Every structure is written in C-alpha cells, then in structure tokens.
Amino acid sequence: MVNPLLFAGQMQGGFAQGLGQALMEGMHYDDQGQLLTGSLMDYAVPRADDLPTLAHQSRPSSTDANPLGAKGVGESGAIAAPAALRGAVLDALGPLGVTHLDLPMTPAAVWQAMQPTTTGDTPC
User: Fold this and answer.
1) Quick one: how far is CA 118 from the chain centroid?
2) Does residue 9 sit within a domain?
3) Structural domain boundaries, residue 12
4) Is residue 20, in this structure, part of any structural domain at all?
C-alpha cells in the first residue's frame, strides 16, 4: 500500500457507489418514456450520513499485469457491495418467504416484498 489514507478513501468511495446502486439509485421514466430522474435533484445518491463507519484491511499481493506490480482498490467496494447488501437483505427476509429483490432495494421495495400476496399468506 503506497498511501494508507488514499487507500481508505478509495475503499470508502467504492463502497458508497455500491451502496447507492444497491439501495437508492434508480432510473425512473413516465408513461411516454421521458426520464424523470435526469439530475441530482431527482436522483438519489448516498451522502456521508448514509454510510456506516468502515474498517479497512489490506492484504497486499502484487500483479504481473504491470512492471510495478501495483493494483487499484477503488472498484472493489463498488463491485462487492451491491451483491453483499442484496444477500444480507434476502437473508433477513428469508423467514418471510422473500427469495428475490431487484435493485435498488429501496425501503418501499423491501416493505412491498414483506407484504402478504393476494393469493396467500406469505410475502412474494
């Protein structure tokens, strides 16, 4: 690790991006196909107060892909966070019979998944 502070910032930023994809960020259109979430005034992105405190760990290993043996770290949180968060939510809702949720898993989407379906007593 060349710069521990830069490493921590890259990990936090990557996780924030992945959390946004998993829980908040969705493109919405009207009936005519007009984009309704075209600006940051309409599109939910995570803020600092949406994020948990993260503990960062490094397991250094070099790569043969370049002469320095260096690798990036920022994309790791963005790639892993949506899958990890979706798995955690599905594990929590498993006892209710919920087996699938599309991203983003907004509070409204999770609440809807928890509701009994019209054909039975278990959630969808």
Assistant:
1) 30
2) yes
3) 4-114
4) yes
Q: What is the domain-level CATH number for residue 75?
A: 3.30.365.10
Residue 119 lies in a domain: no
Name the nearest CA neighbour of 101 among 116, 86, 115. Answer: 86
- The domain tally of the chain equals 1
Question: Could you tell me which residue, 60 or 83, shows the higher pLDDT?
Answer: 83
Give domain status of residue 120, yes or no. no
| pLDDT given at position 92 | 96
100 phi/psi in degrees, rounded to 5 = -150, 140
95-106 per-position pLDDT tens digit: 999 999 999 999
